[in-house]
Write a structure and sequence with these properties.
The complex is a heterotrimer of chains A (92), B (160) and C (122).
Chain A (H helix, E strand, L loop, with lengths): L1 H28 L4 H26 L3 H26 L4
Helix pairs in contact in A: 1-2, 2-3
Chain B lengths: L1 H16 L4 H18 L11 H31 L8 E6 L5 H13 L3 E6 L4 E6 L6 H18 L4
Antiparallel strand pairs in B: 1-3, 2-3
Chain C lengths: L1 H28 L3 H26 L4 H28 L11 H5 L16
Helix pairs in contact in C: 1-2, 2-3
Classes of the chains: A mainly alpha (92), B mainly alpha (160), C mainly alpha (122).
């Protein structure tokens, strides 16, 4: 019985995360300035990590957590490198 | 410091692979040793008799930071839900109270981790220029929190 | 025992999703980039981490990965927020309303015409 409660909560949370990701993608598409768009990309990455974790719990499969780990590492480096590029107008 | 870095990398490898066969454990040790040999981390002297006190200080530091983060999160949630959006942003200077770069960096990390405060620049002598969401909180509150964190960090590094 | 863990996991998912939704609501309501960064901090620090706590409770095999991922998110989140706010200040994105600014007193303002020569602080 409790397993089905958890599954209902997980599916509801997945739907909510999809709605939130639409808002984040809109921020990326129609941001008011460049840092605002980068912020939208960063939120999208974080929400994708959250969705992957939800899928791991829903399918009872920890392989999704490996994908989330890789995405977290790539997204962090990408955001910091792009922020440095915006600030200094050079990559290194 | 070198054996400590091997130990940390080895534990991370074992946590990620979740496979405790002898073959995998030995492979993890080899990978951790190889990375440490390639990276050459800066040496750091650890005095064994001070380790228990440092670990105790680290545990207290985690709880202090967790309490600050929870309070900040709830405060920002309240501000966000308020229909009038009563935010008073400002940039205030918080002295880190230490010349150590590591302690300043960790203090800046703890401040930025808690929602509602965000370090924007670090100036001379560890002045941390912090963007806060609610400047009606007096500066002394932030100074007090910073002093508590600074004392714990100094205890961890065994520098009185 | 298993059912207790599943109940706790469901609670963690509910609270984490609430904080993520509050963070996005903050992004929609806040007036400028700097204040929006405060709101997005909640998504990384509370939203994703609480979902990972649920994953650790339900998936014993993924516990190690979950703990490593929590540590990574908590280490990387502040660095991202700092780099974004610092970049916004350096290219001179204005604040929504005038306010107390202790930073302006010590640094040359990063005006638009100074973009070619960004000030580097030691």
């Amino acid at each position: 019985m409790l397993a089905s409660v958890l599954n209902i909560v997980l599916v509801a949370s997945l739907v909510i995360h999809m709605v939130l990701m639409v808002v984040a993608l809109r921020r990326l598409w129609r941001g008011e300035n460049i840092v605002d768009r980068l912020l939208g990309a960063d939120i999208t990455t974080t929400l994708t990590i959250a969705v992957l974790v939800l899928l791991a719990v829903l399918n009872r499969n920890s392989l999704y957590l490996d994908v989330a780990l890789g995405l977290a590492a790539l997204g962090f480096v990408a955001t910091v490198a792009l922020a440095k590029y915006i600030a200094d107008e050079q990559m290194f | 410091m070198q054996p400590w870095m091997v130990l940390v990398l080895w534990l991370v490898y074992l946590a990620l692979s979740a496979n405790f066969e002898l073959r995998n454990v030995v492979l993890g040790l080899l990978i951790a040793g190889g990375i440490t040999a390639l990276v050459h981390p800066a040496p750091y002297r650890i005095e064994p008799q001070r380790v228990p006190a440092a670990v105790w200080a680290a545990v207290r530091y985690v709880f202090v930071v967790a309490k600050d983060v929870l309070e900040g999160g709830l405060q920002v949630a309240r501000l966000t839900l308020d229909p009038k959006l009563p935010i008073h942003p400002a940039i205030i200077a918080i002295p880190s109270g230490t010349e150590s770069e590591m302690a300043t960096a960790l203090s800046a990390h703890a401040i930025t981790l808690s929602p509602g405060a965000m370090v924007m620049e670090i100036g001379d002598h560890g002045a941390m220029y912090t963007h806060t969401l609610d400047v009606t909180v007096p500066d002394e509150v932030y100074f007090e929190m910073q002093a508590r964190r600074r004392d714990l960090l100094m205890e961890i590094a065994s520098e009185p | 025992m298993e059912s207790v863990f599943q109940l706790l996991a469901a609670l963690a998912v509910v609270v984490g999703t609430t904080f993520s939704a509050l963070g996005i609501l903050g992004v929609l309501r806040m007036p400028d980039v700097y204040t929006r960064l405060h709101a997005t901090g909640k998504i990384g620090v509370f939203g994703a981490v609480l979902l990972l706590v649920a994953a650790i409770l339900v998936l014993p095999k993924g516990a190690g990965k979950g703990i490593v991922l929590i540590f990574f998110l908590l280490l990387a989140g502040p660095v991202t927020a700092h780099s974004l706010s610092s970049a916004a200040y350096r290219i001179g994105i204005p604040f929504a309303k005038p306010m107390r600014n202790d930073l302006a007193a010590v640094t040359e303002t990063f005006d638009a015409d100074e973009q070619a020569e960004p000030q580097r602080k030691a």
